[in-house]
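Sharing a chain and its predicted structure for anyone who wants a worked example. Both blocks are below, sequence first, tokens second.
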Amino acid sequence: MSSAFAPRHELLRVTDLHAFYGESHVLHGLDLAVGRGEVVTLLGRNGSGRTTTLKAILGLLPRRSGSVMMNGRETIAWPPHRIVHLGIGYCPEERGIFASLSAEENLRLLPRLGSGGLGDAEIYAMFPELHERRRSPGTRLSGGEQQMLAMARVLRVGARLLLLDEITEGLAPVVVRTLAGTVRALRERGLTMILVEQNFRFVAPLADRHYLIEHGRIVDMVPRADLERRMDGLHRFLGV
């Protein structure tokens, strides 16, 4: 695909993005765009560059080039602590829960980015399990509770663009269904989300569009309206 799909009311545009780990060239001129309130996925096999794309958007790599426009601002030369203040929240695959802190202390660890964050009552209404376990150490939380906590933490600080990396990995089906409901609820609140996910069954009904990544490049984009007729090709692409 020669250029990114251009949604209306664009929030994020990535153009000709290159990223490196040391001497390893991982992203090769990647293009994508995300509109306000959209949910999009990055689909591809392991090693295709999906997680690297999220980290490059946030400036978490030592070397990157190209253009990352967030809400009309060029951020390619910005450090991560400045980028997040534009309202970007990141849930890494490893979740980043501190074992020595309680669930409530983990929740309140990050400073607020603005006035748009969810209050504690709203968060506990969305994740009642966290209210029940709010005084439990991070090590005592289940995998599902840790994932809810990681999401709740970035919602509390006021992030409007959520970068969610493999949020269903290793979780029981009942927890995956809960997270699907959470993504829908956040979309209804107007949040924008980019999901990196191996569980295609989870993301297929949630996303407006699916970007296909191979060898560090976007090779195609599948809108929701085309999903059914292209399902066989997607399964072959993903090796499902």
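Comments welcome. The chain is about 30% helix and 30% strand.
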